[in-house]
Design brief:
The protein is mainly α and 227 residues long. The protein has one domain: Phosphate transport system protein phou homolog 2, domain 2 (Methane Monooxygenase Hydroxylase, Chain G, domain 1, Up-down Bundle), CATH 1.20.58. Helix content is 79%, strand content 0%. The protein is built from 9 helices and no strands. Helix 7 runs antiparallel to helix 8. The protein is globular and about 65 Å long. It starts with a helix and ends with a helix.
């Protein structure tokens, strides 16, 4: 049985939570690369080829989420449950990142099923705006998460939240449209792509909200949490 001094030394030397936080940053960076390359394959390539193996990257992300859970659990066990909220928030964040990886993999599946470059036709401008916004959200969220910058997280959430509604508008328009020039394959791919972009954006906003909101309000708009 460990004596108090040995327990104290174990507690003092434990950096499991810090390691778990760093792992979450790496997860977000991995999913960012997955997203960027999957979109490039679907929208800029006629072969569906990729510079990276998205499916292998997804396995790396899945490994990270298990490691984060183990490290958070170890930290809570050693500290006797002290500072439980950071651990809960972190496990929530990595679930969102893991889901981003899944939806990014879905975009890659679309690229494989639709090897020729997907053109947005009358929705092309909207797709480009959404893609650019999601890329910018990824790029800004990584340092926001590292620095726990509440003001920047709230601003990111507020400025880019329009993406969710726009994606829904595209899906609804594709369902209702009677443009005979659009094949069923193209229309279905465009609708699924818009849906995947929405879900990726939603999970990014969940992560941003975890920096701003108390634990019970993660996933809500910052202003809703405040109300």
């Amino acid at each position: 049985m460990l004596r108090f001094k040995e327990l104290y030394e174990l507690w003092r030397s434990d950096n499991s939570l810090t390691e778990a936080i760093h792992d979450s940053h790496k997860m977000l960076e991995e999913t960012f690369e997955m997203f960027r390359e999957s979109v490039a394959s679907l929208r800029q390539s006629d072969t569906g080829d990729l510079k990276i193996n998205v499916y292998q990257k997804d396995q790396v992300v899945n490994t990270y989420i298990r490691e984060v859970r183990k490290k958070v659990l170890k930290h809570l066990a050693i500290t006797g449950g002290m500072n439980i909220i950071p651990g809960l928030i972190l496990t929530s964040i990595v679930v969102d990142i893991e889901r981003i990886g899944d939806y990014t993999k879905n975009i890659m599946d679309l690229a494989v099923a639709h090897p020729r470059r997907l053109k947005g036709r009358e929705y092309e401008e909207s797709y480009q705006e959404i893609e650019q916004t999601v890329l910018e959200t990824f790029q800004k969220l990584i340092p926001i998460l590292r620095e726990s910058d509440k003001a920047a997280a709230a601003e990111l959430h507020k400025k880019n939240y329009w993406v969710l509604k726009k994606c829904d508008e595209i899906v609804t328009a594709l369902i209702k449209e009677e443009n005979k020039k659009n094949t069923q394959k193209d229309a279905a791919t465009r609708a699924l792509y818009a849906r995947h972009l929405k879900r990726i954006s939603a999970h990014l906003f969940n992560i941003a909200s975890s920096v701003v909101n108390p634990f019970e309000h993660i996933g809500f708009k910052p202003e809703e949490a405040g109300a």
